[in-house]
Write a structure and sequence with these properties.
Radius of gyration: 26 Å
CATH topology of the largest domain: Rossmann fold
Distance between the termini: 66 Å
Largest sheet: 6 strands, parallel
Strand order of the largest sheet: 1-11-10-9-12-13
CATH architecture of the largest domain: 3-Layer(aba) Sandwich
Structural class: alpha/beta
Number of domains: 3
Strand content: 5-15%
Number of helices: 18
Shape: globular
CATH class of the largest domain: Alpha Beta
Number of strands: 14
Helix content: 40-55%
Length: 477
């Protein structure tokens, strides 16, 4: 699917066009020439076609589909999965050759241990020190929120508890630097460290090779620093299929985590059930709730940061028309100095908006409706706004808490639900690598006391064998 503009107005060729507001009740037209992002002013934003078009593009996977161009993503991924299931490692090798233009053998799919060691030795000491500090922050946070077995509930001779155990083997996907050119080594910290805190025994890393046939030295250095010795240089969808199904070379994992492009996301969707997944994460998005207390230049920088993901989405919701226009102007001033200015402009024009609403209560309602990946709150009543909003992946409160803190350093994982899925998905954390088992223990007297009720339930459901499993122990008729 090709990228599509949001709303009914497309910017003219050249990428610059007026900011427009479509017709809706009690809306006035806003015109700011030569800005990349549209301003929509609405008293009923949750019924406004222009506002809902942005929401629906995110929920429908419009940004994910934009990555795939005209490809039939679902069919291509289904074919890959079937091929890996039928031909195992050879399918992974052939698909990597076709997609990545890298020719492997069963012996070279896995990165050699000496390459990992060499990458760590060659890495800049300052960079490795940075990795250690960031990993330490992530580890501290994850250990603080880790689920632990609590004291059991005791009712007479009945003991009812829960036991948490870590997954045995986890696969981590890390984008290799294709497309936008970003090598997301920070994703390794945000996936591997939580798994380690949970106590996962084996971690296997899949990273598509670069044109030269090797995995990025930064990826290898971070893997070595984190103690991950299993790294596969294979194409993303093929590697994920191998981890889900199992091949002679790549053993099956219990769960696969890590963000990726449209094909990676679709592979995780199709394989869910055979293997656990974190979520169906798409490109990055931010929604900012702000009022006149916010600094326009800072908000503009925050929006540009998320649009930089190519594509990404940035939405500002504010009761201040003055702030909306100031942020739009600041975006235009800052944009030309950015390396990915053309891609950012496309994302701002097609997937982003500034929405002017009646008050902060309305702004919070829009935020809750979007259930965004990143939510920023920069107002004179941050705590009040935070209390009004239920659904968001990660929430950044106050003017001194930009999203990149969460992307790299603060501690919570940056692997977050996107596309409105924060309504039912949570951020990746150490607890996503645990599974809970209920633990039930009765003594003879307690079984005798409860037996009649259990037998009654079973009999009403017509499950006589269930009833008998209790009856034979207590001698009840």
């Amino acid at each position: 699917m090709a990228r599509r503009a949001v709303g009914k107005h497309r910017a003219p060729r050249g990428g610059r066009g007026p900011v427009t507001a479509l017709k809706s009740p009690r809306r006035r037209r806003t015109i700011l020439p030569d800005v990349a992002i549209r301003i929509v002013e609405s008293r009923q934003p949750l019924r406004d076609p222009a506002v809902l078009a942005v929401r629906d593009t995110l929920r429908a996977g419009g940004l994910v589909a934009a990555r795939a161009g005209a490809a039939d993503v679902r069919a291509a991924v289904a074919e890959t999965i079937a091929d890996v299931e039928a031909r195992g490692d050879q399918a992974v090798i052939d698909l990597t050759a076709r997609i990545e233009k890298v020719h492997l053998t069963p012996a070279t799919m896995r990165v050699e241990a000496d390459k990992l060691a060499a990458a760590a030795a060659a890495a800049e000491p300052k960079f490795l020190a940075l990795v250690r500090r960031a990993a330490g922050n992530v580890r501290d946070y994850q250990q603080a929120i880790l689920h632990r077995d609590g004291p059991p509930l005791r009712r007479g001779g009945r003991t009812l508890g829960v036991r948490y155990t870590p997954l045995g083997r986890v696969g981590v996907f890390v984008p290799g630097g294709g497309g936008s050119g970003a090598v997301l080594v920070s994703t390794m910290l945000m996936t591997i460290v939580p798994a380690q805190v949970a106590g996962v025994g084996e971690i296997a890393l899949v990273c598509p090779p670069t044109v030269g046939g090797d995995v990025s030295p930064l990826v290898l250095a971070v893997a070595a620093e984190l103690g991950v010795g299993e790294v596969w240089r294979v194409s993303g969808t093929a590697g994920i299929a191998a981890l889900a199904i199992g091949t002679p070379g790549i053993r099956r994992a219990d769960k696969i985590v890590g963000p990726g492009n449209a094909f990676v996301t679709e592979a995780k969707r199709q394989l869910f059930g055979r293997v656990g997944i974190d979520s169906l994460a798409g490109p990055s998005e931010v929604l900012i709730v702000a009022d006149d207390t916010a600094e326009p230049e800072w908000l503009a920088a925050d929006m540009l940061a998320q649009a930089e993901h190519d594509p990404g989405s940035a939405v500002l919701v504010t009761p201040s028309r003055k702030l909306a226009e100031a942020v739009a102007g600041a975006i235009e001033r800052q944009l030309p100095a950015l390396e990915r200015a053309a891609a950012i402009r496309r994302a701002l024009e097609r997937y982003s908006a500034i929405v002017v609403v009646a008050d902060l209560t309305s702004a919070c309602a829009v935020a809750d409706e979007f259930a965004t990946e990143h939510l920023q709150i920069v107002t004179g009543d941050d705590e009040g706004c935070l209390a009004r909003i239920r659904d968001a992946g990660a929430i950044f409160v106050g003017p001194h808490t930009p999203v990149p803190l969460g992307d790299y350093y603060a501690g919570p994982s940056h692997v977050l639900p996107t596309g409105g899925t924060a309504r039912f998905f949570s951020p990746l954390s150490c607890n996503e690598f645990l599974k809970a088992s209920s633990v039930v223990r009765y003594d003879a007297a307690s079984l005798a006391a409860d037996a009649a009720d259990v037998i009654d339930f079973a009999a009403r459901e017509g499950l006589t064998a269930h009833a008998n499993a209790v009856r034979v122990r207590v001698g009840k008729k």
